[in-house]
Amino acid sequence: MSVSIVDPDNPYRYIEVRGVVERIDPDPTGAFFVTLNERYDGPFGPKDPTDAPDRVVFVVRPTAVGRRG
Questions:
Q1: What is the pLDDT of residues 22-69, one digit of tens each?
Q2: Distance set, CA 36 to CA 14, 25, 39, 40, 57 (Å)
Q3: Are 58 and 3 in contact (CB under 8 A)?
Q4: Which helix (H) or strand (E) holds 3?
Q5: What's the rounded Cα separation, in Å, for the pair 47 and 51?
Q6: Mean pLDDT on 8-16
Q7: What is the rounded distance in angstroms from the CA atom of residue 6 to the CA atom of residue 12?
Q8: Tally of structural domains, the chain
Q9: Structural domain boundaries enclosing 51
Q10: Cβ distance 38 to 30 under 8 Å?
Q11: Please, which residues bridge with residue 64 across strands?
Q12: What is the CATH classification number for the domain harbouring 45?
């Protein structure tokens, strides 16, 4: 899989991480979502995802990293 993050101020600047999915872990309580939400959204964001029973966590082993700009 790959993930690209583009600089909103400069669309020619980005970072890309490519990797292999090592495993897919079920997250039926949405605990991973809650942890990320607290870290990045603070205490005011949604606490419990309504789709928690369907959530999974992808664990990725990076194989290549690239950047531009």
A1: 999 999 999 998 898 888 877 666 677 889 999 999 999 999 999 998
A2: 22, 16, 5, 6, 12
A3: no
A4: strand 2-7
A5: 12
A6: 95
A7: 8
A8: 1
A9: 2-68
A10: no
A11: 18
A12: 2.30.110.10
